[in-house]
Please model this.
Amino acid sequence: MDSLFIVDDNIELLCLYRKVLSICGKYDIAGMAGSGRDAIDKYKKMAKRPDLVLMDVNMPDIDGITVAKEIRRYDSDARIMLITAELISNSDLPSEISDVPILRKPFSIGDFMYAIGRALNGKKGTHIF
Model:
């Protein structure tokens, strides 16, 4: 079963993502973080790396793009999916993470699950929705 690490400063969304993923039953939750700094610290301490990091872009302490870059510096094989309401594209991202899929808010549960599946199956460099 694939494992996911969820990062979002909005506690309601963090809990919603966890609940949806738990109900789905297809994924293990490897961990959760409510801030960029917390995400970096927790990721580096994980004994077993998650199969995918779900990363919010807009966070108050360290933005998700910077966190994704830091995680990739630490683990070049890390799979990351950005989640944002911003109108960003892969060409707007730094080269270290220009291959990560981007899921745009708002999205349906179906879109969410589909995007995770695509990200886990190595579909890189594409906007999902």
Notes: The first strand starts at residue 2 and ends at 7. Residues 2-120 form a domain with the Rossmann fold fold (CATH 3.40.50.2300). The two ends are 25 Å apart (CA to CA). The chain has a mean pLDDT of 92.
